[in-house]
Each structure stands twice: as C-alpha cells, then as structure tokens.
Amino acid sequence: MSSAASNIHIRTASPDDAAALLAIYAPYVRETAITFEYEVPSTEEFTRRITHTLEKYPYLVAEKDHTILGYAYAGPFHERAAYDWAVETSIYVDQNLKHSGIGRLLHDALENALKKQGILNMNACIACTPTEDPHLNNNSVEFHTHMGYRLVGEFYQCGYKFLTWYNMVWMEKQIGEHLTDQPEIRKFRDIESDICYRKFMK
C-alpha cells in the first residue's frame, strides 16, 4: 500500500461533506470524459444527491487528517423492482492521488456494505475510448478488471464531449448467491451499525 493510502479512515458521507466532495468531482466534469456530465453541479444539488443516495444505499468517503481524499457510492441499476439486487457503483478519487490505493480501499468498503444489504450484482458504467486522449484513458476499465469485474457490453460512440465521441462499457461483479427465494435487500441505514469501518494503516 502506498504512503498516500496509509492512515486513511473510511466513513459514511454526510450532506455536510458536499462542498469537499464536489471539489473532487468538479475537475472530472470540467477536464475529463470520465463523467459525461457537462456542467458542474451546485453544492445544493450535490447535497441533494448525497441525501437521496443515503435513503437506501451506501455513500462513503475516504478521509485522512480530516481531509476527504475520495468517495464511493451506489445507486439503483434500474428502477423496476426486479432489479433491486443490482446496483450501479461510482468511485472518485482526488486527481492528485490517483494510483495510490485509495480507490481500492473505497471499493472494498463499498462492496462490504453492499453485501450486508443483500446486494448481489455490482455494475459499473464506464466511459472508454479506442484512442486515449487528454480527456480520457482506459484506467477505469483496468481498475474494475483488477477488482474482479467482467465486461458485459460495450456501446459505441454514445457519449459526446470535448468534440469527441466516446464509447461506454458495462462491467459487472457478482458478490452474492442468487437464490430461488431471494431475501429482500436491506436499506443501508439498517445495516450501517453492523459495518466496522476501520483505519487503514501502513
């Protein structure tokens, strides 16, 4: 583990974290095609997103010395009831701290929380490109492959940003047993106390 990923605490996000999380996310909107969002959301909108996510799913932050270094969260894969056991996941790390191990810490904590909820499938929607450029490389695909995801589909030239057409892939990791009589999932707040967030030390 790199020194950047030592002494890091993973905890549940709070709406009060919105400004700090937005400071991490904004450069991805302005400078990259990692997100297909065009405009940086307001702090109020970001607060609403955090609050809405926490009504059902985990929203986690990685923190060191009271500074937030990255965050991860899950949301519905699809709104219809039959998809309740699948989620879409997102992870963002301060761009100055990429490849430091923080993304893995966040992913592991997110996966652990989702397992306790009874989630079975983690899905990631990832921008990708056949030709890397200053706005997009394929590091996210490589990261998810390393985390145990498999490629399940690719959409071609479906995202337009910075005068460039980008592809998108879906990747999936199955984290639970699929049963005939599947128990209902639990809300994150109902299992949060069962999660032992830990500090990740050198």
UniProtKB/TrEMBL annotation:
Per its UniProt record, what SUPFAM superfamilies does this chain match?
A: Acyl-CoA N-acyltransferases (Nat) (SSF55729)
Q: Which residues form the N-acetyltransferase domain?
A: 8-176
Judged by the first EC level, this protein's enzyme class is transferase
Claim: Nucleotide-binding is one of the keywords in the record: no
On whether Metal-binding is a keyword of this UniProt record, the answer is: no
Give the E.C. number(s).
2.3.1.-
The protein's matches in Pfam families, at most eight in alphabetical order, are given as: Acetyltransf_4
Keywords from the named record: Acyltransferase, Transferase
Q: Name one GO molecular function term.
A: acyltransferase activity, transferring groups other than amino-acyl groups
Annotated protein name in UniProt = Sortase and related acyltransferases
